Amino acid sequence: MATVKLALVQFESELMDVAANVRKGLEFVRQASRQGADLVVFPELFVTGYNTDVIGDRYQELAEDTGGSTVKAFREAARTHGINIVVPMALKRADGAVTNGAVIIGRDGALRGTYSKVHLWEDERKYFEPGGACSPYELDFGKLGVLICYDAGFPEAARTLALQGAKLIVTPSAFSIEDKHRWDIYYPARALENTCFVAGVNGVGGGLRLFGNNKLANPRGELIVSGNLNEEDMQVLEIDLDEADEYSKQTPYLRDLRMDTYGYQA
């Protein structure tokens, strides 16, 4: 068995109060570690909060690079508590551009990589530069795929990660209640068609009616987590990544994909 215990956090951010959000985030890391979690995942832009109408241009000044105080704090927490962490944040690149990103930290505190949201939603493109690649990250339990929110609406993104061997894809998000019909579809669909585990990790509040309701679908496309609505919470559960191989034998979407027809390169 290739088991991994996940902690998925429905986080309610204080808009633009980075210090408060980091403090609370570190407490969730401690709680997840006490429950034996191997990986803790937070929602999209939880460090600053998600609300482009309110925060707008301030994302530029609130953004940090991987050497900043936020990443340093979570790296130390990962090392202290022995847990892998996905930290979604406004991320400043070496060229000065700011992305809607995520930092992936190993349980030894080492940086395993960064991801920048490829498909920007509505006016996000006013404040962020899009990313240009979907590749999994090597963690101690295997390859982890990371997408962010609107990325999950593009089957090609998850498919690209699955073709590179990701058996678990996590999707930090900021979904408002008006779009819950999409939220309910994305994760089971992406899990089924790629025979892998796919999680959606949503914020709460923020003035945009973010509603929580974290999702986790197994490689059969069955929901095994559907979190509470409209409340801060954390779901902790263990999954067996070997199920991805078992289900892919039963329904071999990836094996039977006509790479020559669709031009996939992974």
Automatic annotation (TrEMBL):
Keywords: Hydrolase. Residues 4-241 form the CN hydrolase domain. Gene3D superfamilies: Carbon-nitrogen hydrolase. The keyword Hydrolase applies. Transmembrane segments: none annotated. The keyword Hydrolase applies. It comes from the Bacteria. Pfam families: CN_hydrolase. SUPFAM superfamilies: Carbon-nitrogen hydrolase. This is Amidohydrolase. It comes from Paenibacillus forsythiae.
